[in-house]
Amino acid sequence: MYGQLARNVGLQSIKMNRIATAGIIIIGDEILNGKIHDTNSYYFAQKMFSLGVECKRILVVPDDELEIHNAVQLMQKYDFVVTSGGIGPTHDDITYDSLASAFKLPTELHQETAERMARLSQKNIQHEGDARKAQLRMATFPKGDNVDVIFLRDDLWVPVVGLNERFYVLPGVPQLFTKLLDSLIESFKGTRIISKSFIRYFVKTPLRESAMAPHLSKLQKEVGNDIKIGSYPHMGQGFNTISVLGREEDKSSLQYVVDYCVKNLEGEQVTDEQEKSYSEKVEDRVE
């Protein structure tokens, strides 16, 4: 299923920096004006969590070059950043151009991508005129020694374009985004991503958050910041849940927090599936 890397990329460039932190930039006016419901950031955050990578920030920006520049600056400190959207053929698809500008790079038609587009999109390809020029915008990328063009799937002509082995450009269409993100992550496993999975426990309690707050503050100070303790209201259901998050090496401390909450906060430990079902219920009333 996985394709070969483009000729200007070697496996060494994908293996360089270990990924511990991540972020995503969602690009598109249609998200900000409510026309489209963003699911890509949710999928990305879930994926990072499953791999033990901390998703530190999710940004949504319009199709605006300055806003994209600002987002790139904010995300520079994270190990792995993906962009979603803005790489189509129309005038408002400016992600490639904006990233090229942000990294002070020229853009150039990537011939291999254009050839793959013609071969894998035969029914939809335009052969001449303005429509053809518009299509080729989707194969016109930043060019430089710090740019990787990565073909990950034999069934898709669109590559993932990487910059500085940190920023990776993905489509906004959810079906394409998820396929390419999954393939990109697969290529990182065992090299840039060394699984160090999170562990999360939930405790259900009838107490109000205000009654829990002193206890949770006390527990947080006791176990330190490597463990994250949070409370989540389930309005209209008559209870709240406490989330206790850490890693494998924190297991004894996590269990201490859970046991404390069960004993002192009228708690009951519940599963991930139960917590998800509570969160998905329609809230009919507010306490």
Automatic annotation (TrEMBL):
SUPFAM superfamilies xref list: Molybdenum cofactor biosynthesis proteins
A biological-process GO annotation: flavin-containing compound metabolic process
Domain MoaB/Mog: 23-192
SMART domains: MoCF_biosynth
Lineage top rank: taxon: Eukaryota
InterPro entries in UniProt: FLAD1_M, MoaB/Mog-like_dom_sf, MoaB/Mog_dom
GO molecular function list: FAD diphosphatase activity
Name used for this protein in its record: Molybdopterin binding protein
